Amino acid sequence: xxxxxxxxxxxxxxxxxxxxxxxxxxxxxxxxxxxxxxxxxxxxxxxxxxxxxxxxxxxxxxxxxxxxxxxxxxxxxxxxxxxxxxxxxxxxxxxxxxxxxxxxxxxxxxxxxxxxxxxxxxxxxxxxxxxxxxxxxxxxxxxxxxxxxxxxxxxxxxxxxxxxxxxxxxxxxxxxxxxxxxxxxxxxxxxxxxxxxxxxxxxxxxxxxxxxxxxxxxxxxxxxxxxxxxxxxxxxxxxxxxxxxxxxxxxxxxxxxxxxxxxxxxxxxxxxxxxxxxxx
Length: 280
Ligand SMILES: [Zn+2]
Hints:
Radius of gyration: 20 Å
Bound molecules: zinc ion
Largest sheet: 4 strands, antiparallel
């Protein structure tokens, strides 16, 4: 699933193309009517004022006060060439070519809809989303407060509540960088650990944006290119390979119903916190 670095890469590609352009129409193609594609008829005649992002959502304010909201889900892609299958939404712009934007989504977990500005009642993840990781007003103290829950740290970060934009890849990578076990209870993190984790989240996301994201299976840029952060991954998808820090084999387990990768030596988890001598 595309996470913040992939969505930000796509946003940066779309911005010079879409910003300031007027929409002739937006319509559903090979998809049933429903909330995933709500309000598309309202887009006609409105100008795209900006191409923004909030967590993993693209949000484009429109001149009539509405917002075009796109979530790529598991497999969504935005492109200027017509896909041969799985075309869910077609948007036509006025002005010079390329003047069609296509939303292709084989697995249909994505969304492409128009809502009233700031009206996220149908988008609960967006409505309850935590701060942007690069928001300068967001600091370690606020992040530490947002961790006051017994939920395991990995699941809590995936919820988007303490901080926006993380998915499976970058959560696993950030937790490895600060040697935290993914099942640590969020509220057991000390202030210093929360500060280190926030710094690691910012670092890994920043590095991934610089390399235009991680292409594993589904993510493609608007121009069809691939992100190159996959070569930098320390643990994600690397089960059985040596930990880059200590050499122990990386383990894959399932946590919060998601494949989870960690180093059993560097990220020991509860034993480390309670002072027992249990070792695997
Ligand atoms: Zn290790």
